[in-house]
From TrEMBL:
One Pfam short name: CTP_transf_1
Gene that encodes the chain: cdsA_2
Keywords per UniProt: Membrane, Nucleotidyltransferase, Transferase, Transmembrane, Transmembrane helix
Descriptive protein name: Phosphatidate cytidylyltransferase
Transmembrane segments: 47-79, 91-110, 116-139, 151-170, 182-202, 223-241, 247-270, 291-311
């Protein structure tokens, strides 16, 4: 299944931007030297964006199946990072195994089967009841509530929330052809990721006081406001590829940017609680998989249900 023409043009535009960014990054490296930490970080981010864009392009070319498989693998990698950080006891092994071998494949089966009823309640109801039952079978009661809550939270973030991204491809919207649903996914990911990047850019350009130094020392007030405002404008400009008007796209863009921002703060709080800076080192310049998708974890379910509730046929 090939991409719709609009998606192809969007990817072409992204690749052009990456080519220009790569050229600028290499020019700055030659001018200021390879030891400059800011320029090194910039080039690492550009490299990571090349990798992620190519992976997304490959998935989108293969349509719904390719995208669903891609996010299944992303959820698997996110689960592994989360488990590595919070897993401490052998008695929790079977709860963790249930996340990997039961909740993960079954949730994505419901996505691919377009079974909205089970997709929307399987983990929040059945998964949340199953995990403490499995944990209780070990007979270990020490910190039971805390251990169970960690496992439930892991399933919610890494499986349930992320599974809403490929689920966008299976929506039936009024006046919007199903094969164009990939544009919804591009809209959501593009706006949320642009917000992250623009917050970084505005923060470096303007500086100023930190917005939440205890959770995210690098985020500034100017960066947050400037990044979210710029990404909201981008959302309005992307309205023609969606079923939204420009004002609707801007409003939805603002909501998903805010959810992405809060998602980043929550995931940073978990990392700080466990004394680490990154979830992993899978992606050069971006830490682990969860470091790259933390904002999407919170934005995707909200975006999915806004679109389904107001535009579903």
């Amino acid at each position: 299944m090939m991409m719709v023409p609009q998606a192809g043009w969007i990817f072409a535009g992204v690749f052009m931007v990456l080519v220009v960014a790569s050229a600028i990054g290499q020019w700055l490296k030659r001018k200021h030297g390879a030891d400059n930490a800011t320029i090194t970080n910039l080039n690492a981010r550009i490299y990571a964006w090349w990798i992620m864009t190519l992976v997304l392009l490959a998935a989108f070319v293969f349509g719904r199946a390719g995208t669903t498989i891609l996010f299944f693998l992303i959820s698997f990698a996110a689960l592994r990072e989360f488990m590595t950080l919070v897993y401490r006891r052998r008695s929790d092994y079977y709860s963790m195994a249930a996340c990997f071998y039961v909740l993960l494949p079954v949730q994505y089966y419901f996505v691919f089967d377009q079974w909205y009823g089970m997709f929307s309640v399987f983990i929040p109801i059945y998964g949340f009841l199953l995990l403490p039952i499995i944990a209780s079978m070990s007979g270990n009661t020490e910190n039971f509530l805390e251990r169970t809550a960690k496992t439930q939270w892991m399933a919610m973030i890494c499986i349930f929330c992320l599974s809403h991204v490929p689920a966008l491809l299976f929506l039936n919207l009024d006046g919007f052809a199903n094969q164009n649903n990939i544009l919804l996914l591009i809209f959501m990911i593009g706006v949320v990721q642009a917000s992250d990047v623009l917050q970084y850019v505005w923060g470096k350009l303007v500086g100023g006081p930190k917005i939440m130094p205890a959770l995210s020392p690098s985020k500034t007030v100017s960066g947050t406001v400037g990044g979210i405002a710029s990404a909201t404008l981008l959302a309005a400009l992307m309205a023609p590829i969606t079923p939204f008007t420009a004002w609707q796209a801007a409003g939805i863009g603002l909501v998903v940017c805010l959810m992405g921002f809060f998602g980043g703060l929550v995931m940073s709080a978990i990392k700080r609680d466990h004394g680490v800076k990154d979830w992993g080192n899978m992606i050069q310049g971006h830490g682990g998989m969860l470091d790259r998708v933390d904002s999407i974890c919170f934005a995707a379910p909200v975006f999915f249900h806004i679109v389904r509730y107001f535009w579903h046929g």
